[in-house]
Design a protein that fits this description.
It is built from six helices and three strands. The chain is mainly alpha-helical. The chain has two domains: about 90 residues, no CATH class; about 80 residues. A three-stranded antiparallel sheet has the order 2-1-3. Strand 1 and strand 2 form a beta hairpin. The radius of gyration is 53 Å and the shape is rod-shaped. About 15% of the residues are buried.
Length: about 210
């Protein structure tokens, strides 16, 4: 109620209240009082959250209306004071403490309701944040596992390549030694056998039979 015509104004806020000299505490303004602005003469306009000094604003507004001399009563029970209250509660405000009014709830009950809703909202946001953290943690673990597997594969490939190269080097070394022995033998042969075939004929029986 009133929210569509007066969004963000005191008239549509659950914290709009009145102080009474006869009753302790702050009391709700019902729909009738909010609409016509007529409060009991000994009651004070009040914001339960103390977002604004409404009584001071009402006093100043009433003084301006009296000085202007333009007040026109809407009905026989209307007054300059009621007009001032209407001006104050219908004023558009960018109030961070505004909370939608529900008829028959006290300002304290509005506060408890708002607090429960905000706690539920914070709990929901916390759950969403925790879910996002868990998903991020899972993704990190997956990435770490992929890196570990890639590292293991690289190490295995490197070892295989190293073993293959080592085997090739061993074969080359053996071939080189054989060739070196053959070359050394060929180099030393003239020194060991200076007469060549003649020496063989003298010292090897089989060689004498084949000598021309």
């Amino acid at each position: 109620m009133f929210e569509e015509d007066y969004p963000g104004a005191c008239i549509s806020c659950g914290y709009l209240s009145q102080l009474s000299r006869h009753q302790a505490g702050q009391h709700e303004l019902n729909a009738k009082h909010r609409a016509n602005g007529r409060l009991p003469s000994d009651n004070t306009l009040w914001c339960w959250r103390r977002a604004a000094n409404l009584q001071k604003e009402a006093d100043e507004a009433e003084q301006e209306i009296r000085q202007s001399g333009t007040f026109q009563a809407a009905d026989p029970q209307d007054s300059e004071r009621a007009a001032a209250v209407r001006r104050v509660v219908q004023k558009g405000r960018d109030c961070e403490k505004w909370y939608r009014w529900t008829e028959h709830l006290t300002p304290k009950e509005h506060y408890e309701e708002e607090r429960m809703l905000r706690l539920a909202e914070l709990e929901q946001r916390l759950m969403e944040a925790m879910k996002a953290i868990m998903e991020s943690h899972t993704a990190i673990l997956k990435t770490q596992a992929e890196i570990a597997e890639a590292t293991r594969q690289v190490a295995a490939d490197h070892k295989l390549s190293f073993d293959h190269s080592e085997r090739q080097a061993t074969r080359f070394q053996r071939a080189f030694i054989v060739l070196a022995i053959i070359a050394l033998s060929l180099a030393l042969a003239p020194l060991a056998y200076p007469d060549g075939v003649a020496w063989l004929a003298d010292h090897v029986p089989l060689a004498r039979n084949v000598t021309p």
